[in-house]
Amino acid sequence: MQIEATINNQKMTLEVAPDELLSDALRARGFLSIRQGCDTSCCGLCTVWIDGKPTLSCTTLAFRVKGKHITTIEGVRQQAEEFAQVLAAEGAEQCGFCSPGFIMTVLAMKQELKNPTEQEIIHYLTGNLCRCTGYLGQLRAIKKYLGGA
Amino acid sequence: MFTIERVLQPATLEEAYQVLNAHVSNTVLGGCAFLRLGSKKIGTAIDLSKLNLDYVLEKAEEIEIGAMTTFRTLETNPTLRECFNGVLPKAVSPIIGVQFRNIVTVGATVYSKYGFSDLLTALLALDTEVELHKGGRMTLIEFLNKSYPKDILTRIFIQKNKRRASYQSLRNSSSDYPILTVAVSELDQKWRIVVGARPLRAQIATKASEALSQSKLSAEDIGQAAALAAEELSFGSNIRGSAEYRKAICPVLVKRGIMEVLQCK
Amino acid sequence: MKYVGKGVPKIDSLRIATGHPVYTEDVVPANPLVVKILRSPHAFAKIINIDTSKAAELEGVVCILTHRDVPKTRFTLAGQSYPEPSPYDRYILDEIVRYVGDEVAIIAAVNEKIALRAMELIKVEYEVYEPVLDFETAHEHPSVVHPETDLICNVDIAMQQDKNIVCSHYQEIGNVEQEFAKCAVVVEETYYTQAQAHAMMETYRAVSYLDHTGRLVVTSSTQIPFHIRRQLARALEIPASKIRVIKPRIGGGFGGKQTGAVEVFAALVTLKTGQPAKIVLDRRETFTCTTSRHAMRIKVRLGADEEGYIRALDIEGLSDTGAYGEHAPTVFWVLGEKTLPLYNKTRAVRYHGKVVYTNKMPAGALRGYGATQGTFALESAVNKLAEKLHMDPTELRLKNIIRAGETSLAYHGKILGSSTLHQCIERGKEMIRWQEKYPRQEISPNKVRAVGMAVTMQGSGIAGIDTASAEIRLNDDGNYTLLLGSTDMGTGSDTILAQMAAEVLETSLDRIIVHAADTDISPFDPGSYASSTTYVTGMAVVKAAMDLVAKIIAQGAFLLGVPEEEVTFNGEVLQCGEKTLTLQKLAELTVLGTGKLQLVGHGTFGSDVSPPPFVAGFAEVEVDRETGKVELLDYVAVVDCGTVINPNLARIQVEGGIVQGIGLALYEDVKYDAKGNMLTNSFMQYKIPCRKDIGNIRVAFEESYEPTGPFGAKSIGEVVINTPAPAIAHAVYNAVGVRVTKLPITPEKVFQGLQKK
């Protein structure tokens, strides 16, 4: 089936199967930042924004984004790099495999929450698993990023 | 691996209902969080997103919540944060993460009657009704206790009253399924104690609720009601905890729930 | 020093963090066949018949392979230097399946959907056997997991196949029983450590194709490209010279990718079809069909004299390796190697026990590699001993642990080159405010807070075995290429190795191109495991850099026409009195011009010792007396990893390792049902710590100087996972008097303990 959607501010017509997941549809179209980590909707690696909200692309059926705006990290590269620089200064990207989904959630949080407390930051990001860093370096980076932004 | 042959985004509920019942393999889509866990073969997948069911509406007598409303909306909605001491946001906010709660819907969760559901536990402590497209409106308790022909859950309604409520859960890892959930509420000295994730579905501990309502709420009364809740309900085992353990901690959470309600304004 | 000791960002940080296509699945040749594996539904069975005819007829199915179609050479998936101590006990596909998830058939199709549909069409008849599921009784079980006669052990590991015993081990120094008889205080306890999943975020995956000369190229998310090449050569019965293994960026490893989980399946499909093939395990397969940490039962006996000197130490282990013996003997040996030397006032020590086969998913390498299991048992026992001696557990350690310059009964007659463990303990005590908080503080009628502690050691590389090489090339424009075979799996090892090279070459980091790893190009390196990269590969890099500096000076002297001894080199300019020559000019003259000599520095390093890094870990917990729920409030880790090469990356290694250790302590547990089906097969059922689970973690370094290491460095990768489990268990005991001896410390176990009191 054909759907129209806007991906990273570009209107696109996509041919998708009824049971195709948005994550697969995006990867197949070259958005290789989309990673799958769990198959059970609980790791946050595949996070993209749908109409600005952080959402699991691995759980969203592609046809359901008809008429919506999807944003991947490829679409917010500059913002992502600004944060990634702070993250890298902490050494907290480590393997980097979960970073795109994590960064998309951080950037969404920045838009959604005004001056979040540490607890609010942790709560907002609980759905983003990471096995390398132990999370604390990420938290330090977020605080620096928000503080300086 | 699940498969879907066709999709439909119906313009009316009636159309959705007709298609749903046209074939046994036709299914209404919720948030789809559990779709990938199984190997469901869906004929027509019915997506209700064009039916404007994603809302929380505060009315004079009740709060109306559309079936496609996400957990994230429950968590952040100002009305729900105010009412019943914010018991609904409290119940749903520990679940996985923001991007998950932006997907999971109220309707699919309630309709599926999941045993582990935090939401059902909290909703049962409130005066909740559900509406099925064909089956009509009924109390949540009635809905949970009976089985209905395939239908579409359209809305839930919560009586807007002065009910005070609290929510307790015990989890090992914070983002795990709960080992036990408890919601306690009180309205005009009538108490209600709900225990979920037993791991069976949430249920009202009626005797304990009754006993507490009759009591003077002394420390002893509260302890007895809490113990009674554990006595009257059944508990099972899964990898998160044994039946014995659940039964043993049930009074603890119930007692804490009661104490918290007593401190609520 | 200009680069060593600086927290520079990783050289690949921006690109990997912002989602650029640099991982295995991102660099796939066009239209690869998709490889899927049909897996056994039974824990133990023989395949009587496989009918693939219906599946093969499906359009888009390119090949289906069963045990009838694969080479019959037994091999091991363990990534270890040859000769591997792990037994050669598997075929690519066998007619006997030994756990739920064992491979039955390989399916290659043009896309995933077709491959999965084909899988459903394969009909397999099994003769189902009684599985061996309980590792404590495996040795007497009538079923024999490995009855085959062609199993090969490269080294004598005292295998008893008919008793499901993979390996037996006995090591005693002094006479343990005699020493126990003399001890004033003896404690004994049996501990259980669970299987743990690696849970790296990138699941196992590999891509293979034939190159322009017909050689097999395998791109894989692996920690061990050179071992994979050797493994593939053996299993596929082709010369290693016909195989090239490339490692792109890796999405985490933790030892999981020290085992060749998937490469052979894609490679075989490519060899059979001539076509590119890709295999990506899903998360469920990653949980259920790869490897985990070895679950163990560990009995510890400790004896001390009246003054609190530990005189006798006896550890008996039983390890569950599951269906295959990957890393079975070595993980078991490491448990003893990394625990016995720690307390060196001992007069007799013993380590003995067995590793057994069961019909469960194989165990394998996982960060800590036996030391983690051993540390939980030993440190828990030491804490118990402290109580019995009425001694502060920190004082007991300070009195008994090995110091630099000393040896230990089980330290092979070597002298410990470096240790600040005493300072680590003192500093950790201050940071956690031990004097105020030990043992407990009542917070409310239900809640109590308490502190606990543990110490640990690991190694740095494998003494006498690990040998790594590095090369540094001076390029035509005066830049360098650092060629490595080690495998940065996210730790930042490419960066810290470049820092070391930059330090010696006195150049800036951006003038060093790092290349790793590709078996066609890289110098040999066993790969990144056994905490080897900073220490072993690091030393090879330092040697290579020094070699190159000497060559640059020699060449400079030649070009300047002066004696070598009179030439100085500051990284930019070669100088002899008034005469100067820039490096850039030298490069130009040698590589392009009349010098006719491209300068390459070589370094190869292997060590006779494996210098241990140390950690003192301190936990503060709050325990809910009514539910048994343990909340970790604070964790302090003070680390001696020698010289810290990159403080930021080292700190993240510590924090990440601590959190993985917290997972082991409180949340993670690989569980099976009564038929051998794994229940914890997703992140919903197997809980790694999330952000809310970890409390505060504070890290400090007490640097020592390791004389055998690069710039005095030791390792850090593994040691950091070891202390949380015993320290948290200790804190829980100090809080509520419940000794949890079986990990993980769940609320229910603490509650049960409270009920028994």
UniProtKB/TrEMBL annotation, chain A:
Keyword Secreted applies: no
Name the UniProt record assigns to this protein: (2Fe-2S)-binding protein
UniProt domain 2Fe-2S ferredoxin-type: residue ranges: 1-76
Alphabetic keyword roster: 2Fe-2S, Iron, Iron-sulfur, Metal-binding
Gene3D superfamilies: 3.10.20.30, [2Fe-2S]-binding domain
A Pfam family assignment: Fer2_2
Record-level Gene Ontology MF annotations: 2 iron, 2 sulfur cluster binding; metal ion binding; oxidoreductase activity
SUPFAM superfamilies: 2Fe-2S ferredoxin-like, CO dehydrogenase ISP C-domain like
Source organism: Desulforamulus ferrireducens
Residues passing through the membrane, by range: none
Automatic annotation (TrEMBL), chain B:
Xref: InterPro entries: CO_DH_flav_C (IPR005107), CO_DH_flav_C_dom_sf (IPR036683), Diverse_Substr_Oxidored (IPR051312), FAD-bd_PCMH (IPR016166), FAD-bd_PCMH-like_sf (IPR036318), FAD-bd_PCMH_sub2 (IPR016169), Mopterin_DH_FAD-bd (IPR002346)
Keyword Flavoprotein: yes
GO molecular function: FAD binding; oxidoreductase activity
The keyword GTP-binding belongs to this UniProt entry's keyword annotation: no
Coiled-coil intervals: none
Listed Pfam families: CO_deh_flav_C, FAD_binding_5
Alphabetized UniProt keyword annotations: FAD, Flavoprotein, Oxidoreductase
Protein origin, superkingdom: Bacteria
Domain FAD-binding PCMH-type per the UniProt entry, residue ranges: 1-163
Annotated protein name in UniProt: FAD-binding protein
Automatic annotation (TrEMBL), chain C:
GO MF assignments: iron ion binding; oxidoreductase activity
InterPro entries found in the cross-reference section: Ald_Oxase/Xan_DH_a/b, Ald_Oxase/Xan_DH_a/b_sf, Ald_Oxase/xanthine_DH-like, AldOxase/xan_DH_MoCoBD1, AldOxase/xan_DH_MoCoBD2, AldOxase/xan_DH_Mopterin-bd_sf
Protein's UniProt keywords contain Phosphoprotein: no
Gene3D superfamilies xref list: Aldehyde oxidase/xanthine dehydrogenase, a/b hammerhead (3.90.1170.50), Aldehyde oxidase/xanthine dehydrogenase, molybdopterin binding domain (3.30.365.10)
UniProt keyword terms in alphabetical order: Molybdenum, Oxidoreductase
Cofactor entry: Mo-molybdopterin cytosine dinucleotide
Domain Aldehyde oxidase/xanthine dehydrogenase a/b hammerhead: 18-130
Top-level taxonomic group: Bacteria
Keyword Oxidoreductase: yes
Pfam families xref list: Ald_Xan_dh_C, MoCoBD_1, MoCoBD_2
Name the UniProt record assigns to this protein: Aldehyde oxidase
